[in-house]
Amino acid sequence: MIHHSETKASTRVRIALIGAGALGSECCRQIVQLPGVDALIESILLVDPDILTWQNIPLSRVYQELFHLDPEQCIGRPKVLILQSFVNRYAPLIEVEAMAAPVAEVGWQELRARHILITATDSALSRMETALAATTLRIPMLDGAVHANSAGEGRVSWFTGQNDHACYSCGMSDVSRARLLAQMASPSNGCERLTPALAMSSAPPDTPSLEITAHRMAQLLCEWTANRSGFLTGSFIVQSGELARIAAPRSVTCPWHDVSTAELIELFPDKPFRDQFPRQGAHQGEQCFELQWPISLVASCEHCGKESRRLLRLAQLRTASCPHCGGRALQSDQTVSVIRFRDPLAKLTPRQLGLPDLHLIRLRPTVQFSPITNGQNEKETKRATAS
Predict the structure, then answer these.
(1) Nearest to 314 by CA among 128, 76, 115
(2) CATH 3.40.50.720 region(s) of the chain?
(3) pLDDT at 350
(4) What pLDDT, in 10s, does the model give residues 195-251?
(5) Which terminal Cβ of the chain has fewer Cβ within 10 Å, N or C?
């Protein structure tokens, strides 16, 4: 059973909703229509990088309604901004913030301010990135998914966020987890293309699947708000309104549950890394900042062989196009995963390195890590970060 740092049921909750597509918009609609929602929800953070297209309209009751009211304000705009206007329309007392960005670009101070993270996305990578934040920050995660072209079938999972309970990654096979972790953190593409292998079905789910799954997600959110100490980690298969619970034991192969005493540091976005290390005199050089998302400084294209110098998270690199030939076969030649006090990169600020504002980062002993880059020197650092 879970425990949470805040146990008073009377406290209104602050939620983050990751994903504003078909399921995410329906989940938001169901939450907004909960009885007494103003007394239940304090604020909602909406996170999704996508814009609304014509193909999205038939899949969402929310977007259908708003499109008929004002079509010119819908197509081509970020989904989160449109969904924000929906919440403002039907629940004006709820504070709504919209971030048109992947969840990996949301500062962890923003996420730590939330009581629960809700994922309603068709991206397994986005779920993994959210799950890492939930597990590290010890925040519950409510995850929903629907089966393409199913008749009222879906899955709703609850993860407590506690270290001794299963997380989203625990429920994956070792092979699937390894592929996703490689997409997040490995500089090499390996022997297979990861993006097609990890892509979910593009077939759209039907309306009953969306409504039933979103309804159960809203129910669980409501129940947890009333009783935050009575929830178990596990998944529910939702079919025709009935539930079949599946236990979710913690996996011994999941890498996110090792007990760590490393401190999470609040970073100032415009202050050099070197100035943000704790003052420890002679021992200052024995620590390093660990980046949650390794960053490629220099990449080469396997098709044309030319070099590209852009700051990209490795997950972004997997889907990025080569600026020279347009191919999608970039491989990182220089990758940074930790920042030491004496590293040339320590002269940069977190914002210059491409980290989100209001971020948190782990401070660890340097001895746990191998060198952070391949042949990195100060001249190459300046060239790679000139933009």
Answers:
(1) 128
(2) 13-256
(3) 94
(4) 333 333 334 556 777 888 898 899 889 888 887 765 666 667 766 555 555 666 788
(5) C
> Three-state secondary structure along the chain?
CCCCCCCCCCCCEEEEEECCCHHHHHHHHHHHCCCCHHHHEEEEEEECCCECCHHHHHHCHHHHHHHHHCHHHCCCCEHHHHHHHHHHHHCCCCEEEEECCCHHHCCHHHHHCCCEEEECCCCHHHHHHHHHHHHHHCCCEEEEEECCCCCCEEEEEEECCCCCCCCHHHHCCHHHHHHHHHHHHCCCCCCCCHHHHHCCCCCCCCHHHHHHHHHHHHHHHHHHHHCCCCCCCEEEEEECCEEEEEECCCCCCCHHHCCCCCEEEECCCCCCHHHHCCCCHHHHHHEEEEEEEEEEEEEEECCCCCEECCCEEHHHHHHCCCCCCCCCCEEEEEEEEEEECCCHHHHCCCCCCCCCCCCEEEEEEHHHCCCCCCCCCHHHHHHHCCC
33-52 per-position pLDDT tens digit = 998 898 999 999 999 999 99
Residue type, 64: Q
Of 132, 112, 160, the closest CA to residue 3 belongs to 160
Token pair 């001794």 in the structure block, residue: 164
Residue 328 in this model has a pLDDT that exceeds 50: yes
Q: What is the pLDDT of residue 192?
A: 43
Token pair listed for 158:
């609850």
Beta strand 287-301 pairing with 330-340: antiparallel
Q: What distance lies between CA 207 and its chain's CA centroid? A: 25
Encoded tokens for 12 = 């209104």
Predicted TM-score (pTM) above 0.90: no
Tokens of 98: 């919209």
For residues 83 and 60, what is the distance between their CA atoms, to the nearest angstrom? 11
Q: Which amino acid is at 233?
A: T
Q: Find where tokens 């939450």 sit.
A: 31
Phi, psi of 341, rounded to the nearest 5 degrees: -60, -40
CATH architecture of 13-256: 3-Layer(aba) Sandwich (3.40)
